[in-house]
Design goal:
Blueprint lengths: L2 E6 L3 H16 L3 E2 L8 E6 L4 H15 L9 E6 H6 L2 H5 L5 E3 L4 H16 L13 E3 L21 E5 L1 E2 L10 H5 L3 E2 L2 H13 L4 E5 L18 H10 L6 E5 L8 H9 L6 E3 L7 H6 L6 H14 L4 E8 L6 H14 L3 E6 L17 H24 L5 E9 L6 E6 L4 E5 L8 E9 L4 E5 L1
Parallel strand pairs: 1-2, 1-3, 3-4, 4-5, 5-6, 7-10, 10-11, 12-13, 13-14, 17-19
Antiparallel strand pairs: 8-9, 15-16, 15-18, 16-17, 18-19
Helix pairs in contact: 1-5, 9-11, 12-13
Length: 452
Amino acid sequence: MPSVLIKTYGCQMNERDSEQVASMFLAGGYHLTQSEAEADVILINTCSVREKAELKALGKMGLLCARPTAKPWVVYGFMGCMSQSRARSLFRDVPRLDIVTGTQQYHHVYELCNRLLRSRMGNNTDTPLRKGAHICHTEQEEGFQNAIRDHLPPAGNCTAFVSIMQGCEMRCSYCIVPSTRGNECSRPAEDILQEVRELVERGVREVTLLGQIVNRYGKDEPIVNGRGAFVRLLEALHEIDGLARIRFTSPHPIGFRQDLVNAYTYLPKLCSHIHFPMQSGSDRILQLMRRPYKNEKYLRLCEAMREARPDLAITTDIIVGFPGETDEDYQQTKAAVERIRFDNAFVFQYSPRRDTVAAAMPDQICLRVKEERNHDLLETVNRIATARNHALVGTLQHILVEGPSKNNPERLQGRTSQNKPVIIPGGSATPGHIVPIRINECTGFTLYGDVV
C-alpha cells in the first residue's frame, strides 16, 4: 500500500483543503503517514500571505528533494497559494519538484500524483537525483467551488472546517490573496448542508465555516425577509440535529449587515466568538490599505455584536508598520484596541508581498520601528486579554471536550463557546460532549477547571 505525507502551512482554509486531498488518497488505497522516509508521495500545501511561510515551504521541500536515501520513485508536489502565485517558477527553485497545483485544482491532485507514482514504480531503477516531472496545473476553473467535497477531518475529531466559498474581490493593497484564490464563488447551500449532515453522522459536533470573506457568501442572492444568504445558511445549519456549535471565519466590515448582528440574539448554536480583522485603527491607513470603511464603523459593529451577545469574545488581526504609518496613526490603532478590549489579536509587522500595490508605496517603515510597534501593541493586547481571562475564574463555562491535551495527554482539553482553551482532569469527561466546567485557574491564555 503506497503512502502519502501532506504538510500544511497557513490558514484554516489550507487545513481543510489538505483534508480533502487526504480523503481522496485514502479512497484510492493510500495510507496517510507522518514519516518522510516512508512516504511515496510528499505534498506541501503552501501559504503566500507572508514571506516567512513561503520560505519555510521552499526550504522544507528543498531538503526533502535532496535526501540521498529517498526512494527513487517519490513524487514531490506543492499545492496552494504559493503554487498559484509562483507557478512554474517553483521548478527553478526546486528542480526535483514534480507537481505544482493551484488553489482551484485540489480535486486533481490525487489523479496527477497517483498516475506519476504508478509510472515510476514500474520503472524503479531510476536514481533519486532524477529530474522532476514539472507538471503544472494552476488554471482557474469555472465551477470549482462545486468540487469542494469529500471532506474527511482527522479520525476522532469532534470539530471540522467546512469551506462555503472561495475567492476574494476586495483587493486590499497589501494582500496577495485575490490573485491566488480568484474571484468570489459560493457553494450551493444544499451541498454545504449535506456535507455538515455527513460530518455530524461521523461524530462532529462543531463546524467552522470558512471563506476568504465568509459573510459575503451568496452576495448576489436576494435578501429574503431582511436576511441575506449567509444568515439564512446559518439558520439552516442551526436546524441540523446533533450539530451543537457553529463558528465562522473571517468576516469583513463590508457586507456585515444588521441581520448578522441580530443572528446572535436568536441562534444559540452560533458560538459567542468572532474573529473580525481590524487591520488598523487609523482611517488614513485604512484608506491606503484599500479597506473601504472607517474605523468608527468597525468599532460600532463590535459594540453592536456585544450588545446582541454580551459574552461575545472578539479577536482580530492588526498590521503595524504599514507604509506611511505615523506615530499618530499607530496611537489610533492602540486606542481602538483599548476601546474594544479584544480577547486576543494577531499582530503582524507589515511585510511587502510581490505584485501588490503596497509593496511599491513610498515611506516604507524601517524594521526597528515596526518591531517597536509590534512589541508595544502585543503588550497591550496581552494585558487586556489576560485580564479578560482572569475575570472568568470562578465562573461556570460549558466546553466541548475535544480530546487529550497536546501538552499533557493525562489531561483533557476543550474550548468554551468564546473559543477559550480549557484544561480539565483526564477521565472526567468524554470527548465530543459539552460539559459544564467551574473555572478555577488561569495562566494567561489557558483556563483550568473541573467538571461540575
